[in-house]
Design goal:
The chain is built from twelve helices and 15 strands. By secondary structure, it is of the alpha/beta class. The radius of gyration is 30 Å and the shape is globular. The N and C termini lie far apart (120 Å). The chain folds into two domains: 205 residues, Response regulator (Rossmann fold); 148 residues, Response regulator (Rossmann fold, 3-Layer(aba) Sandwich), CATH 3.40.50.2300. Helix 2 runs parallel beside helix 11 and helix 7 crosses helix 8. It has a seven-stranded mixed β-sheet. Helix content is 38%, strand content 19%. The longest helix has 24 residues.
Length: 422
């Protein structure tokens, strides 16, 4: 009985092993077919409409300035009857700022760029206001040949090889094409003429501050390099935390360095007004120089006129509204009639950007992003509100006009031409 049991068990085991072998030879069962992806229908173009969008900080302390830029864009489009050829031009005003931050954010700028990309009726993207924001949207828009026209970016690295950080501007051009243009002169001009002006004002010792952002630190670096070249003594350099509420300890340190002039590379939004207040609060009543990021009434309001009058100097890429001539003066007159007040400094750049957008669409003659991009870069001897100028191969304006303003009686007052026009 035991022997029989052993034989029986052996037969069962052999059968089991054979069964496993047969099972292993069977082809694997086919995986169930994946469910079809749920997709939205591809967006379609409207053959009768071309859209132009702008992306600017429409929330926070820059709003007064960007209000006038938007007004300028709208005036340019209205003068054309909101039409180019057979196309109706529709304009959308996008905000790249948040109420929480009070200024532009990378997330909002990226979202604006993505929105423009997906809307196949959008042919032109006017923006950005801040150079740091441009770094976010430029490579995105470049990949779809969407033309950018900035009315305010001044960081040289966005366009000029060898003038910015490593990899600039190539990293903003993943396709190898240029799709970004600007109608305002860059900081490689403004930083230099600022230092030259400081010396002409009688400064010998300078303390340099910056807001650690792309625009502010960049222009401060350019100012410093030129200052050293022309014999100005740099008695200190500090970056500020723009989220701080006040800077009195830092201003005390600046005062101890005994400068003739304080240069701040930054904007109204990164606390230029508070710096001016705290300089006076600690008894530091020397000259203060700031770049065009502070050329707005909000700077005077935030600092208080008494803290700025007769000692605050502002460089600006171009001429202030009251000094514009020809088509520029015509724009200012029409602006005042329409809006009942003087435009701020960058309004005319918004107007010029709008005019350039229309010109590029007209020259292209078809609703095609790449054709419009190519047409814009071919614009030469454009006779506009900023005078007669062209785009160079990098998308920069050939206009190099620079000016200096001083704060008197709580207002900006034209002081001098700078640089090539000086």
């Amino acid at each position: 009985m035991r022997l029989q049991s052993i034989r029986t068990l052996a037969i069962i085991a052999a059968a089991f092993v054979a069964g496993l072998a047969c099972e292993a030879k069977k082809p694997a069962a086919a995986a169930p077919a994946p469910a079809p992806a749920v997709t939205n229908p591809a967006p379609k173009q409207d053959d009768k409409i071309i859209k132009i969008v702008s992306s600017l900080p429409r929330t926070g302390s820059a709003k007064a300035q960007t209000d006038t830029i938007v007004n300028g864009i709208q005036m340019a489009l209205e003068e054309a009857g909101n039409k180019v050829g057979n196309w109706e031009i529709k304009y959308e005003d996008l905000d790249d700022a948040t109420a929480a931050e009070g200024k532009w954010t990378p997330e909002k700028e990226a979202a604006n760029a993505e929105k423009a990309i997906k809307d196949l009726d959008v042919m032109v993207y006017i923006g950005t206001y801040n150079s740091g924001a441009a770094k976010v949207s430029m490579p995105k828009l470049n990949q779809v040949d969407l033309l950018m026209i900035s009315p305010a970016n001044t960081w040289p690295g966005l366009t000029k090889p060898g003038k910015g950080e490593a990899g600039e501007p190539e990293k903003y051009r993943p396709t190898g094409k240029v799709n970004y243009t600007r109608v305002v002169p860059a900081d490689d001009i403004q930083g230099v003429v600022g230092a030259d002006w400081a010396k002409k004002l009688g400064a010998k010792k300078v303390f340099i501050l910056d807001d650690r952002e792309v625009y502010g630190k960049g222009i401060a670096d350019l100012f410093e390099a030129r200052a050293k070249d022309i014999g100005l003594k740099i008695v200190g350099r500090e970056g500020i935390d723009a989220s701080a509420q006040e800077f009195k300890p830092l201003m005390t340190k600046v005062k101890d360095a005994d400068p003739d002039l304080v240069y701040f590379g930054g904007t109204t939004q990164t606390k230029a007004g508070q710096i001016a207040k705290d300089m006076v609060a600690v008894g530091l009543k020397v000259m203060l120089m700031v770049p065009d990021g502070c050329f707005e009434d909000a700077f005077i309001e935030s600092a208080g006129a008494d803290n700025l009058n007769d000692r605050t100097y502002v460089t600006f890429g171009g001429l202030p509204p009251e000094k514009l001539t020809g088509k520029g003066k015509d724009f200012v007159d029409k602006y005042k009639k329409k809006h009942g007040k003087e435009p701020e400094g960058y309004a005319v750049y918004g107007y010029e950007a709008g005019k350039i957008a229309l010109k590029a669409i007209e020259m292209a003659g078809k609703k095609d992003r790449n054709a419009i991009r190519e047409a814009c870069l071919k614009i030469k001897n454009f006779d506009g509100a900023l005078g007669k100028w062209s785009f160079d191969k990098n998308g920069d304006t050939t206009n190099r006009t620079m000016s200096g303003q001083v704060v008197k009686k709580g207002k900006f007052e034209f002081a001098t031409m700078l640089g090539d026009e000086d």
